[in-house]
């Protein structure tokens, strides 16, 4: 039997891309059939915001899955998830601008006066350089270390996005709390792993020294 | 005898590349649908497809406009009955229409007590028979930044209070909603301190604009709109207009009100519609009229400044929001 050539799971990235765009198609369908309810702009705003945060969180689960279970496939969809998150965040912002009739004065006042808006916009802006440098060539061009340092901005972005969600709901904070806890758990896995591998390195060098 | 020639082709097999293609297509579709479906389930909140069609018609609008009627386009009944904040039924805007059926609006009694000479508990049908019903087409502005135009049916609260004869000590009016988690599923969660309590200063309560509503657009009020009896104070944010009232108490002290206790920095006791005083998270300068695409400027006192501004002479409305 001849083995398949080319990368493993060739269907994975296209499937994630198409699947990630499905909610946008459903949203569009809802909008055209009037199923968004009496306040469609607000509904679309909420749905795109939640999609952006969910996809951002999904993109951040890829590394913990590799660390915990040694799965390698999540790393291959991380970029697609991140770009989809950025796309929904940008759409979320566009709907917000539309809601405010694209009036720069009103939006500027909102951004300057209300931390809720400031934080949300900052999260989006932090994602811009990451989306911009998401090509394979960019890693090479920047060098892996610099690229990686830049892309750690995503930790700030997801924290701000979760805070934005927390401030955005009126009374029931269950959903934002779940989001914040998931983000915290993903951070915790990374931290524990870094500590453990640092400890292992120390032990390794210590034993080398004693062996001498 | 036939002997297989050595160079003969192997027996035909299903094309492996074809099988592989199908396998990949299935995996592709499965993954795409699973991810897309999961995301959609997590984030989609579809609006009500069809709302209540309405109850018995108790009044036919179309008479001469009342003294305070707005001529602005009335919000379609379907939207006015499917897009509601009524946390007693749930936090979603469509929860009240979906779950409203659990509320039994008859029999229903209202207790009127406190600083009145004639305290009593009265059946809601008796109570509404005391007064001629009036048509009042009011703007309604929600603190969340949206608005509607609602053709209420009701009677002035002032008429009811005068009938109860407030004592000289009465300075405020406290309203209480029904507290019954059996009928109000939202009350099974602790998002707010139940029962819902609201309050007005006595002069606000006696103002001719202040209405006790029993109907909407010619029909008996539906549960999602506050059946069977609700308050309507059109110059204040919607949350002041308490729904499904079971008790009206005249008091000497300013009552504690549910929202001003839950989040005092966001919801004050007065809650007068004021484009100059922002909510901490959004500007109140504009609003989205339900059914319209853009935003329109919010009017001071929701457009009723001429009638009510003098009630607040000398008050700093930035402080007493």
The low-confidence parts of chain A are none
Question: Using DSSP, what is the number of strands of chain A?
Answer: 0
Helix percentage of chain B: 10-25%
Biggest sheet architecture of chain B: 7 strands, mixed
Q: How many strands of chain B?
A: 12
Task: Spell out the helices and strands of chain A N to C.
Answer: HHHHHHHHH
Task: Kindly summarize this structure in a few lines.
The complex is a heterodimer of chains A (212) and B (321). With 212 residues, chain A is mainly alpha-helical.
Describe the protein's architecture and organization.
- The complex is a heterodimer of chains A (212) and B (321).
- Chain A is an all-alpha fold and 212 residues long.
- Chain A contains nine helices and no strands.
- The radius of gyration of chain A is 21 Å and the shape is globular.
- Chain B is α+β, with helices and mostly antiparallel strands.
- Chain B has eight helices and twelve strands.
- In chain B, strands 3, 4, 7, 8, 9, 11 and 12 form a seven-stranded mixed beta sheet that branches.
- Chain B is elongated, with a radius of gyration of 28 Å.
- The N and C termini of chain B lie far apart (106 Å).
- The mean pLDDT of chain B is 90.
- The chains are: A mainly alpha (212), B alpha+beta (321).
